[in-house]
Structures are given as C-alpha cells and as structure tokens.
Amino acid sequence: MTGPIVTVEHFIAEQEREHPQATGAFTDILLGISLAAKVISAAVNRAGLIDVLGVSGTENVHGEAVQKLDDYANGVLVGILGRCGSLSGMISEEEEGFIQIPESRDPGPYIIAFDPLDGSSNIDVNISVGTIFSVYRKRSDGPRVQIDDLLQPGSEQLAAGYVLYGSSTMLVFTTGTGVHGFTLDPGIGEFLLSYRNMRIPSPGKNIYSINEAYHDQWTPGQQRLVERFRRPPTGGAPFSARYVGSMVADFHRTLLRGGIFMYPATTKSPEGKLRLLYEVAPMAMICEQAGGRASDGRSRVLDLQPTGLHQRVPTFIGSPGLVEMAERYLADD
Ligand code: AHM
Ligand code: MG
C-alpha cells in the first residue's frame, strides 16, 4: 500500500476535529457498525464452511424465509449497537416493531435503522450481500422512544452507510460531509481508508440496472424508459445492463461507475420492493452526498415522510442526468 494508512477510527477522529458539528456524539455508533461489520464479514466469508447456510425454518415479518445468516447478522448488530450509550432505539428489517434500548438507563440521543443482511437470497450462491444503516436524532423528550422519532424523512438523517461483503469487504458512509470508503484488510482486521470524498461519475457510464423480468408489470412510462436505454434515439450505442440482485452491490457499482439503479412500481407491488427507512433513504443520502440523485420517480426520496417502519418505495438512484430522465418518462404515466 502507498500513502498514509488511515483506519476508520483515525478518520472519524479527524472528521470530529474538522467538523465538530457533523460527528462527535455518534462516533461510537460508527465504531459499533465497524465492529459488527467485521464480525458479519467473518461469518459471510466462512458461510460455505460452517453450518450457517440455508434457511433457518422461520419467516421474517414480511413472510419471507429467513436465512440463518440474516438472523446472525441481526443478532450481532442488535447486540453491539444495543450497548452504544448514544442510541435509544433501533429498527431492523428482521424485527416487526422497533427496539427500545435499554429501558433501565437514560435514553441515548440517536436512533438507528438497519437492514442487517440485504440481498440474503444470494448467500447460498456466493454473491455479494450487504448491511445498510441510517442514523437519526431522537426528537421527542422523555425516556421512551416515540413512533415519530422513528418516522422521520431521510433529509433528517445524520449519518448513513453500507457494508458490502464482496470480493473485499467495504464500509462506505457519510456523516453529511462527503462519502468515504474503507476496505477491510483481513490481515490486520482494520477498515482502511481507500476512497476519500467519493463522487458519482456524471454523466458516467451508460449502465441501467433493473430486474427486467418484471417488464410486463411496469407502467408504460417505465417500459418506454428502458426501451430508451436499449435503443437510444440518435442511433448511439445501447446502454449496458447490469443487475446483481443485491442492492448494496448494484448501488456500489453505480456509485463508482455511474448509471442508474431502479426498483420501480409493478402491478403486483405498486410501491416496489425496497424499504424506505433502512434501504432506500440511506442510499439516497449517500448518493446525494456523492453528487447523485435519488427519486421515487416523482419526488426526492429524502423529502418523503415515512408512514410505516417497513414501508416500501419505488427507487431510482444514480447519476443525476439519468434519474432526471427517469422522472420525465414517469411523469407521463
Ligand atoms: P431483501 O431485503 O429481502 O434481501 O430484498 C432486497 C433485495 C435487494 O438487495 C435487491 O435489489 C432486490 O431485493 C432484488 O429483488 P428482485 O429479486 O425482485 O429483483
Ligand atoms: Mg433488504
């Protein structure tokens, strides 16, 4: 490695000195995420070797089969973050209600929402999965978390990030002062700064990312949009299509290369599939912080007022010009 070695701990301390308003009190949350990410990463890497593969035999709150690693990742995050003195509540994709932590002491000033292991249906076939998280300030006074503390628009996020368990494990996050990426060095067990101030390429690569199997269930505007990517009107080269089926991996590629990632409404799922609070809003904050755009097809994701913990939202995220184009095509629907 050339250049200075900067661990995530060093970097957070450096950010605190430079932007005392931006970080500080949620440092222990980011360090908790970093520790949990290492523990989950080790389990993901051993998934083919130990008895963590396969379905646990239970269903989660959405009626989906729960992979054992989903359970494990959820337990690791709840266990580690539950000990962070600065949190008072948690929302997890794997838990129907929110978690009040703990009732015996003063509530911390922050709330966290997370998807412990997104894309978990890919685990059994050794494809990248990820953890997504989002941090808010607890708004209400008093010792207990109220539902309004949890249902805040994405624009109120103080920090957001993801961990990608891919060919290497990466932690990417923002605290509102740019997006920074850290790669886990497995030899020393540390996340080392590998991307400072990530910027999404604009215009970037002409890549669209969507599950095209749902084509016949899309709105006419959505169908015309993808047709536009496949057959540019000026006779130019068609866009490339890339779809991993793991949002963290698809988003990470989009952040580094540019393009657009979409999970639109379908006739069967009018709100799409992805969850606002712990999947789409955090990616939207990261995307905007990197100079990109995130939309539900009509408006800015970060302005949406959530109405439920597990609410879904149609998703269009990536290079700003392409997301604007998607909004223009969908306006005709
Ligand atoms: P999950 O939270 O149950 O893992 O579902 C979310 C995942 C995303 O990572 C991915 O973008 C999407 O599901 C893929 O869905 P589909 O198979 O319908 O294309
Ligand atoms: Mg998920």
Question: Would you write up a description of this structure?
Answer:
The protein contains eight helices and 15 strands. The chain is α+β, with helices and mostly antiparallel strands and 333 residues long. Helix 1 runs antiparallel to helix 2 (27-45) and helix 2 (27-45) runs antiparallel to helix 3. Bound molecules: 2,5-anhydro-1,6-di-O-phosphono-D-mannitol (AHM) and magnesium ion. 2,5-anhydro-1,6-di-O-phosphono-D-mannitol (AHM) binds next to strand 5. Residues 64, 93, 115, 118-120, 211, 245-247, 263, 273 line the site of 2,5-anhydro-1,6-di-O-phosphono-D-mannitol.
Strand order, sheet with most strands? 4-3-5-6-7-8-9-10
Specify the CATH architecture of the largest domain. 2-Layer Sandwich
Unique bound compounds: 2,5-anhydro-1,6-di-O-phosphono-D-mannitol, magnesium ion
Q: Mean pLDDT, rounded to whole units? A: 90
Domains counted in the coordinates: how many?
2
CATH top level label of the largest domain: Alpha Beta
- How many alpha or pi helices? 8
Output the radius of gyration. Answer: 19 Å
Overall strand count:
15
* Helix proportion: 25-40%
What's the story with the biggest beta sheet?
8 strands, mixed
Outline the low-pLDDT stretches.
none
Whole-Å distance between the termini? 51 Å
CATH topology heading of the largest domain: Fructose-1,6-Bisphosphatase, Chain A, domain 1
Tell me what portion of residues adopts beta-strand conformation: 15-25%
